Amino acid sequence: MDAIPYLNIILRLTIWFLLTADLSVANIIIGISIAFLLPRHFASPEPLREWMRVLWEIIIAIPQAYLEAIQIMLRPHDEEEIVRERVKPKRTPGLIFLDIFLITFTPKTIVLKYEEQGWYKVHRVRRKISDQ
Questions:
Q1: What does the domain layout of the chain look like in residue ranges?
Q2: Mind telling me which residue stretches traverse the membrane in this protein (predicted)?
Q3: DSSP code of residue 90
Q4: Which helix (H) or strand (E) holds 110?
Q5: b/e burial code for range 25-44 (CB count within 10 A of at least 16 → b)
Q6: What pTM was estimated for this model as a whole?
Q7: Count of C-beta atoms within a 10 Å radius of residue 64
Q8: How far, in Å, CA of 92 to CA of 125, rounded?
Q9: 91 φ/ψ sector (left φ>0, alpha ψ -120 to 50, else beta)
Q10: What pLDDT is recorded for position 45?
Q11: Which of 3, 2, 14 is nearest to 97 (CA)?
């Protein structure tokens, strides 16, 4: 059997536990119920390799997020820009969600909007490059 449905359930449960911050038995039962009752999108399933690649990128983003937070605290980041980033081709809604999560997870970037034409509108902060 394919592992993708299990990954979708795990993703839904993870989001539920992050939102509720409660690991009581009642909350676990509610979370499992919601994970199974939410409608599923029956598009072509993502290859397991794509899921693993995105999950690896999220693991790599954790130390990057701490580093960016320290950089923001130590040096001012007073320039802002809004850029458009292309969505990777053939992304399913689950992978698009993980891409948005990955971009927004780090302190210097946040996705403002997902455009159906295949773009993310991303807000970034950066250090001002001084003229020397």
A1: 64-132
A2: 15-38
A3: T
A4: strand 109-115
A5: eeeeeebeeebeeeeeeeee
A6: 0.64
A7: 14
A8: 28
A9: beta
A10: 56
A11: 14
